[in-house]
Request: fold
Amino acid sequence: MDVIVPFAAHDPKTRLSDVLDPGERRAFARVMLADVLESIVAAGGTPHVLATRPLDHDLEALRDADPNSNRSFQSDLAGSLDSGLDVIVDDRDLTTAVNAAVATAFEGTDAFEPPVAVVMADLPLATPASLRRLLEADGEVVLAPGRGGGTNAFVSRDPSFRVDYHGVSIRDHRRNARSIGATLAEVDSRRLASDVDDREDLLEVLVHGERRAHEWLLEAGFEVATDGGDTTVVRSE
Amino acid sequence: MDVIVPFAAHDPKTRLSDVLDPGERRAFARVMLADVLESIVAAGGTPHVLATRPLDHDLEALRDADPNSNRSFQSDLAGSLDSGLDVIVDDRDLTTAVNAAVATAFEGTDAFEPPVAVVMADLPLATPASLRRLLEADGEVVLAPGRGGGTNAFVSRDPSFRVDYHGVSIRDHRRNARSIGATLAEVDSRRLASDVDDREDLLEVLVHGERRAHEWLLEAGFEVATDGGDTTVVRSE
Reply:
């Protein structure tokens, strides 16, 4: 299945500004993207990055900003991204860009054909198994809710299904699916629900991650601290 | 399968003190418990409440404190809890009480026999389907992680598996399972991961709940508010 992965290449993850500088946020966002792309491929999907600007633009920033100067990791990342990955550039807002890309898929092109999935780029806990549950679920519209009322991923088999990421999007998407008479299913996955937006979310990556994003956080000095009953994320200097 | 449900009957859910008074917290905790018990039965399990004091003690408090004076709801709740439910009273700390109850199950009694599951009482989003995935998963130890490094539910088929709920318990439980040579599995469920501890967690119940706890929050005046990009829970007076 074709899987669209929206990616904010410019100034991503602003809610991590208290623990990561702008260059680090760009690097970490890209590392999470690489994890997601790898899992999509392993789940049998064909990823298409829907980026706000060309990725090679960002790659230079990444080389400058990597806090650990881990060159082999960077080469690995660049290699995985350069190997024939389709990148669509659309600098419009997320809702507009996703709806346009989904519509293109249903028109049928050389690059795209329905059904189509959309998976967010900030899901470093997404495993091939969790993504297979999404891609293989029955339903004309299949939603994977995110924590906080969001929609972290979906599959659409109905050309008239549209998204709106403002507000409590999962409610709107349920309503949109019903309004077009599409059969609706939801995937009950903690891994797909765990989008990484703020410091608290980093705890999930540290405790449950096993790949690039997890390794990146460890190399950047992040660790889990327990102080009495409280569990927090701290960063060593 | 026998399913132990630990329940803190006295002063539960203290992290909800900013939005619920003590009587409301007791009532809401009990409503969540009722949702969990009902789902366990529907999933084919036999629940045993492991309470810090007798439930009827608490029931009086509930009658006094219900903010909505919804008598039929209370009767319904009392009825569902009185219908032959096994209640084990153990006022020791959670870790000690759970380990003792699990050990009893492996000794084999009239009430209990292995394998045994433990499911927390503050999981109002747990559905029969999500619990069936837990109960039916292969593995001598099956863990359902909670958000924040916790362990919201598990199944044990190994008499020597023990728990420790302090700190980042999911890590300790993985380690404990490995140290006794047990095969380990994890259930990837957002619903089982969503324990309700603080105000932010109420959002999940409002957006994804469909039963008593959801209804209780609505009747108590809680709703989701979106202000700009932020989604929060508010309570009307």
Remarks:
- The beta strands of chain B are 2-7, 46-51, 86-89, 116-119, 141-145, 151-156, 184-186, 222-227, 230-235.
- Residues 164 and 209 of chain B are 29 Å apart (CA to CA).
- Chain B has nine helices and nine strands.
- Chain B touches chain A through 28 residues (CB under 8 Å).
